[in-house]
């Protein structure tokens, strides 16, 4: 046993920029310094997005440093009223210092921005050997220099400029110690700058590189006064579009009474390709989202609705064919730029948008322009319909090969099962829902094409020690087995999953103790009698929220919002965020769902059932953990284990979730 000391002084509190230096991977990508440069570029682009700057110049210098200059308003240089430190020093040396927090109140310096955490350039500064900031503002030029995140040369006036000139230039010398490679990812940088130019029609973006070996110095410049349309055409290069590229812009108007805020909306360009890989890119407030997210889901929904309406209106659907949204969207190449007031991303690298509202926003604002375009371009519309129908037919042919058996021929499907239309295991899902009233909501909330509902009325038996032959004595278990189309089997048996009727089987129970009990009983059933379904990843647990926070609308700048939290910890996080946004206590109300039945179908759909916005956990047995899991089940579910069960639960109960 190690003799290392562990006492009060073993706990360290990291101050200032230390946490960034200690764990850079939490704050940025560490494969190369490109992301810390992107943070600086994003700030210049935010100035342009607000309409304050119209050019961004990036220069890679021979010594490996990079400078980014914009002609925006210039970072304020005066003292911060509370901190009594020049603001420009503050934003580079303190995490969570920024001008992009107070948007919802309408008091902020930025209405829309990619920046939101006030973290970005402090990270850049912490991970650089040297960083110089030059600000032109109010007729004066100021400069401050940092080294390793600390002030090296305090802010000083270094000259005068014309009163109308303003802007910020940041030059960064990344510290090679923090990055796997010291080299900038040039293609990524070029892509990013080109994208900024596209998304900011009219803004000029330049990149200059020094001479390298034989190569002369290079300057590239991007300027797309026609925005997304020319950019998409550029992206598609050699691909053959089936229909001309269509571009549109649609934002919420100042006097709209929708749930969204004025200025929120989209611009996009899209087309259909007959063959080859389809290019697609999406952005939120100019931040690239390579992993997509809810805004892409919204566009998909709008395109699907518009094309379905067109197909129905022109009576184009052959008998027996049903078009699904993937059939329509699979061949779409698109560039989507979304503006939302309060984007929520997955992590600081912002690869994926997660706001549920964004789906509704994008679907709502893009529907009309797409419908209008289809109606004005009937030939193009017919071609698109034709492509979608062909996709649907190809899908149906491939499904036939792996078609599920409609019942085993022996058992009749349970009467209370509300089945889905799809027979494709890759997309169909069965929800095992606790109670009739929740079952009713789930039926209204489901997508009837792909989601089936089986409400469980009676109590599910604890089947841990029940012999396989006696399982069907319990009605609920009988119905579950027949609905999923698989016979119970043990872990060592050869297993026949050929009758399986759903690719995903999700347990949906209340977020309370009784719900947890039902969840455990069902997990016991699957673990003990259908282990292969778990092993092949077919079993899921839906995660309905426990709390809802209703935030009141406050004038036009603050639309009403509904936020959901899975548990107390998430609720605390939401409340903390509302506080930083300056939302008063009286402006929101917290309610606790007593059960699933209390949620209306829309809420259930948004939080728990819709594939793009729900939370669904796949049930997995940890690798090599089979025996341990068995051991836990014996303790939890075995007979005659009551005493040791109590002891175990007291000691380990809070860890249970980790095993799901
Ligand atoms: N080029 C610039 N022009 C004007 N103000 C700027 C510029 N760069 C930074 N700022 C100011 O500095 C603040 C802090 O920037 P920082 O990059 O640290 O965070 P952020 O952009 O607010 O959020 P995020 O952490 O999401 O990037 C900004 O909010 C803005 O007020």
Bound molecules: adenosine-5'-triphosphate
* CATH level-4 homologous superfamily of the domain at 18-222: Histidine kinase-like ATPase, C-terminal domain
Largest sheet features? 8 strands, mixed
CATH class of the domain at 18-222: Alpha Beta
> From the 3D coordinates, which CATH architecture of the domain at 18-222 would you assign?
2-Layer Sandwich
Strand content: 15-25%
Total beta strands: 21
Low-confidence spans: 401-410, 652-660
Mean pLDDT: 85
* General form: globular
What share of the residues lie within helices?
Answer: 25-40%
- CATH level 3 topology of the domain at 18-222: Heat Shock Protein 90
Kindly, what is the distance between the CA atoms of the first and last residues, rounded to a whole number of angstroms?
A: 32 Å
Main attributes of the structure:
660 residues; alpha+beta; Ribosomal Protein S5, domain 2; 8-stranded mixed β-sheet; 5-stranded mixed β-sheet; 18 helices; binds adenosine-5'-triphosphate
Write the layout of secondary structure elements.
Layout: H1 18-22, H2 34-49, E1 55-60, E2 66-70, H3 87-93, H4 120-126, E3 128-137, E4 140-147, E5 150-160, E6 167-174, H5 186-199, E7 204-209, E8 218-222, H6 228-236, E9 246-251, E10 265-272, E11 280-284, E12 287-288, H7 294-313, H8 325-329, E13 332-339, H9 356-376, H10 378-401, E14 429-434, H11 436-445, E15 451-456, H12 475-484, E16 504-508, H13 513-529, H14 531-535, E17 539-542, E18 547-551, E19 561-565, H15 568-580, E20 588-592, H16 601-609, E21 616-618, H17 626-637, H18 642-652
Parallel strand pairs: 1-7, 11-13, 14-15, 14-16, 16-17
Antiparallel strand pairs: 1-2, 2-6, 3-4, 3-6, 4-5, 7-8, 9-10, 10-13, 11-12, 17-21, 18-19, 18-20
The protein binds adenosine-5'-triphosphate.
The site of adenosine-5'-triphosphate (ATP) has 22 residues, from helix 2 and helix 4.
């Amino acid at each position: 046993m190690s003799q290392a000391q562990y006492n009060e002084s073993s706990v360290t509190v990291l101050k200032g920029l230390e946490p960034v230096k200690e764990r850079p991977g939490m704050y940025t990508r560490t494969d190369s310094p490109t992301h810390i440069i992107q943070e600086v570029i994003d700030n210049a682009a935010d100035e342009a997005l607000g309409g304050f700057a119209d050019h961004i110049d990036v220069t890679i210098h021979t010594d490996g440093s990079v400078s980014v200059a914009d002609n925006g308003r210039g970072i304020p240089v005066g003292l911060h009223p509370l901190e009594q430190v020049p603001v420009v020093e503050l934003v580079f040396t303190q995490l969570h210092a920024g001008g992009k927090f107070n948007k919802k109140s309408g008091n902020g310096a930025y209405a829309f921005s990619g920046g939101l955490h006030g973290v970005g350039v402090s990270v850049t500064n912490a991970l650089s050997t040297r960083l110089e900031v030059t600000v032109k503002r109010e007729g004066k030029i100021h400069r401050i220099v940092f080294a390793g995140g600390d002030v090296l040369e305090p802010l000083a006036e270094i000259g005068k400029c014309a009163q109308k000139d303003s802007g910020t230039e940041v030059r960064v010398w990344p510290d090679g110690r923090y990055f796997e490679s010291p080299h900038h990812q040039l293609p990524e940088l070029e892509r990013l700058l080109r994208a900024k130019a596209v998304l900011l029609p009219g803004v000029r973006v330049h990149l200059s590189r020094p001479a390298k070996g034989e190569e002369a110095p290079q300057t590239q410049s991007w300027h797309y006064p026609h925005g997304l349309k020319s950019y998409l055409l550029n992206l598609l290069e050699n691909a053959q579009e089936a229909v001309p590229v269509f571009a549109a812009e649609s934002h919420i108007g100042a006097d709209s009474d929708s749930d969204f805020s004025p200025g929120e909306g989209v611009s996009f360009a899209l087309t259909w390709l007959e063959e080859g890989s389809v290019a697609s890119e999406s952005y939120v407030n100019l931040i690239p989202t390579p992993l997509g997210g809810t805004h892409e889901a919204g566009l998909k929904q709008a395109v699907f609705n518009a094309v379905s309406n067109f197909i129905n209106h022109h009576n184009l659907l052959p008998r027996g064919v049903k078009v699904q949204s993937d059939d329509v969207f699979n061949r779409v190449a698109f560039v989507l730029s979304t503006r939302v007031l309060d984007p929520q991303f997955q992590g600081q690298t912002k690869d994926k948008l997660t706001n549920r509202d964004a789906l509704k926003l994008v679907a709502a604002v893009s529907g009309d322009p797409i419908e209008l375009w289809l109606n004005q371009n009937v030939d193009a519309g017919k071609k698109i319909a034709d492509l979608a129908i062909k996709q649907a037919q190809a899908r149906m042919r491939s499904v036939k090969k792996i078609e599920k058996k409609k019942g085993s021929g022996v058992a009749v499907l349970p009467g209370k099962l509300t089945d889905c239309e799809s027979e494709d295991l890759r997309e169909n899902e069965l929800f095992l829902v606790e109670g009739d009233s929740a079952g009713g909501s789930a039926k209204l909330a489901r997508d009837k094409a792909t989601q089936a509902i089986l409400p469980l009325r009676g109590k599910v038996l604890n089947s841990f020690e029940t012999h396989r032959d006696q399982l069907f004595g319990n009605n609920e278990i009988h119905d579950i087995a027949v609905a999923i189309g698989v016979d119970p089997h043990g872990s060592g048996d050869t297993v026949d999953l050929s009758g399986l009727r759903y690719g995903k089987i999700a347990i949906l129970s209340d977020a309370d103790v009784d719900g947890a009990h039902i969840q455990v009983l069902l997990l016991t059933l699957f673990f003990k009698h259908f282990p292969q379904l778990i092993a092949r990843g077919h079993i899921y647990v839906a995660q309905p929220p426990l709390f809802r926070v209703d935030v009141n609308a406050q004038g036009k700048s603050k639309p009403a919002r509904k936020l959901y939290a899975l548990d107390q910890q998430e609720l605390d996080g939401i409340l903390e965020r509302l506080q930083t946004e300056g939302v008063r206590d009286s402006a929101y109300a917290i309610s606790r769902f007593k059960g699933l039945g209390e949620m209306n179908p829309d809420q259930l759909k948004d939080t728990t059932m819709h594939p793009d916005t729900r939370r669904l956990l796949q049930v997995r047995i940890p690798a090599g953990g089979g025996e341990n899991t068995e051991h836990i089940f014996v303790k939890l579910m075995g007979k005659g284990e009551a005493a040791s069960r109590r002891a175990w639960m007291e000691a380990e109960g809070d860890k249970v979730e980790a095993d799901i």
